[in-house]
Design a protein that fits this description.
By secondary structure, the chain is α/β, with parallel strands linked by helices. The chain is built from 14 helices and 17 strands. The strands form 5 sheets. Strands 1, 4, 5, 6, 7, 8, 11, 12 and 15 form a 9-stranded mixed sheet that branches. Strand 16 and strand 17 form a beta hairpin. The chain is globular and about 75 Å long. The protein starts with a helix and ends in a 15-residue tail after the last strand.
């Protein structure tokens, strides 16, 4: 047995009685007892992750486009829809599938072809069609794996994002990044294992909850660390006036001694997690200012990311920081880009959104590749679902909106053992239903975990008497995607 597990399980009669006496009559006492008796989240053989022999990837950069981008206006080329402009979507296509309350009351569902031109870009197959809004992304299409046949269970944002992040629509589960942190551990001493950065978009922006990058029932040191925009990415990086590093170190040493005494009495693993986080915060006082300072970056690299790279919090700045973070050993970097929820005025808003993301995301792929990082860095680009082929609200040749659509949408991946330059899956002529190679969210998670070196069925954590995993009770490795 792992000596650390043995230490946690080494409960003497005296310690048991002491703990019971201190917590008798309280809910905390019951929780502590359940932990000590193995029903809680204390370490056990069942909670140890099982690494495979040959991981292809060491880290992840996950770009989540919050609000759900329109696959029909970006990735899923349907030229035949132009001839069906303003026709009603056939009932045989919709087939009674549920709608949101935002369009269920519409008297008709007029087909809205994309008003944007598409062009074919070279890849390792016969090319991939991408919107004119994504010229930079098209230029790196040979590195990307496009999946046109993703589908999900959720039809609204909150459960949709929760499902994509945690593998379950209900709050409370660990996020994808937390699972990776738990499974792989840290590969650096001065930065968190899991980092989150957010870019504010425009228009209708859904709320972002910190639980999307939370640790759920995993130890709290696996939760994501949110880096803010600006010169102080983390609050209280600078010591107060009159406090120097020696004073700070002495304070932490005292707190550590007090917490160690408490841990010996209670065996609560969260005490150790807090100690670990306090030490990380101390080291981040030195590492984060260096991370945020891009003055030593090659001007040609900055130019590659575009003019917004100098604007803190922009998607360009966050893409550059994502590369700097993985370069420094951070395991999981998540970039949220808000503002893709275009129920109306889609053409104007999607132009602005793609102007913000197209050049930086392509530059990130190039930057990782030229530094030798792409081969073992998994890059994922996804929203929580797609958008409808019919217009929400008034349709005109130059303006329309689209409602939520979970039945099919497009994601793309690159690096880390993903087969480059391919497309996978196919939707019908309306971009409404999948007709070839459907892919579930759990399949995506299972495949990414496989590339990171895990059997997704074995990466588990016991909580309240049950073994939990990111893929819940399903998921298959998509071997067609593997290089």
């Amino acid at each position: 047995m792992d000596p650390r597990e043995l230490y946690h399980l080494n409960l003497t009669r005296r310690r048991f009685c002491s703990l019971t006496a201190r917590t008798a009559g309280s809910a905390l006492g019951l929780a502590a007892l359940s932990q000590l008796l193995g029903a809680g989240t204390s370490a056990s053989a069942a909670t140890r992750p099982a690494l495979r022999l040959r991981p292809k990837a060491k880290r992840v950069i996950y770009m989540h486009m919050e609000g759900a981008p329109s696959h029909l206006d970006l990735y899923d080329y349907k030229p035949g829809l132009r001839a069906r402009y303003d026709e009603d979507l056939p009932d045989s296509v919709r087939n009674g599938q549920r709608l949101t309350g935002m369009t269920s009351g519409q008297s008709r569902f007029p087909i809205a072809p994309s008003m944007f031109r598409f062009a074919r870009h070279a890849n390792q197959q016969d090319g991939v069609w991408l919107s004119e809004l994504l010229p930079h992304t098209g230029a790196v299409a040979g590195e990307l794996c496009f999946v046109h046949s993703m589908h999900t269970e959720a039809i609204n944002h909150e459960p949709g994002i929760t499902f994509f992040q945690t593998g379950n629509q209900q709050p409370g589960r660990p996020s994808f990044g937390a699972w990776v942190s738990y499974g792989l551990g840290s590969s650096n001493q001065n930065l968190p294992t899991f980092v989150v950065m957010i870019t504010q978009g425009l228009g209708n922006m859904q709320a972002l909850s910190a639980r999307f990058w939370g640790s759920g029932f995993l130890p709290s040191d696996h939760q994501g660390c949110h880096l803010r925009a600006g010169r102080s990415p983390v609050l209280f990086l600078k010591d107060p006036d009159g406090i120097d590093r020696t004073d700070r170190r002495a304070m932490l040493d005292l707190v550590e001694r007090l917490n160690e005494e408490e841990f010996r009495e209670t065996l609560d693993p969260e005490i150790r997690a807090r100690l670990s986080q306090a030490e990380m915060a101390y080291r981040m006082q030195m590492s984060v200012p260096e991370l945020a300072d891009i003055s030593n970056e090659d001007p040609r690299t900055l130019e590659m990311y575009g003019p917004d790279v100098h604007k803190p919090g922009s998607f360009a700045a966050n893409c550059l920081q994502a590369r700097r973070l993985v370069e420094r050993g951070v395991r999981f970097v998540q970039l949220y880009m808000r503002g893709w929820d275009q129920h109306g005025g889609l053409p104007r808003e999607i132009r602005l959104q793609t102007q913000a993301v197209d050049q930086p995301q392509a530059a990130l792929i190039r930057d990782l590749k030229q530094r030798g990082l792409l081969e073992d860095t998994l890059v994922l680009w996804a929203g929580e679902f797609g958008r409808t082929v019919y217009s929400q609200g008034t349709l005109s040749p130059t303006d329309y909106g689209r409602d939520h659509h979970p039945r099919c949408f497009t994601v793309w991946m690159a690096g880390g053992g993903i087969r480059p330059g391919i497309t996978y899956g196919k939707t019908d002529d309306y971009g409404y239903n999948i007709v070839e190679n459907p892919v579930e969210v759990h399949d995506l998670h299972a495949t990414l975990l496989h590339l990171l070196g895990f059997d997704h069925e074995q990466l588990i954590y016991r909580h309240q008497g049950r073994d939990f995993r990111l893929t819940d009770v399903s998921g298959r490795v998509m071997r067609e995607w593997l290089a």
